[in-house]
Amino acid sequence: MTSSDPAADQTLRAVLDARSREHLIHVLERTDWHKQKAAEILDVDRATLYRLLKKLSIEDRS
Are 47 and 40 in contact (CB under 8 A)? Predict the structure, then answer.
């Protein structure tokens, strides 16, 4: 079975990480990279947000 969907060849973890990265960057841009505000929107602790930024290799653009 072949698929034209490039995500079909990726692991679930890779797809979830890519989507999480996109969403985090979107929220950070909406808050002008204010991490406390972004954490509140995402309903996570600020420390959790920092861990996610490190895990997903998102560098501060503020």
Answer: no
Count CA atoms closer than 13 A to 56's CA, side-chain side.
21
pLDDT in tens, 22-53: 999 999 999 999 999 999 999 999 999 999 99
In the chain, the number of structural domains is: 1
Query: And the tokens for 1?
Result: 């079975």
Give the side-chain half-sphere CA count within 13 A for 62. Answer: 9
Residue 5 belongs to some domain of the structure: no
DSSP character at residue 10? S
How far is the C-alpha of 13 from the C-alpha of 5, rounded, in Å?
16
DSSP class of residue 4 equals S
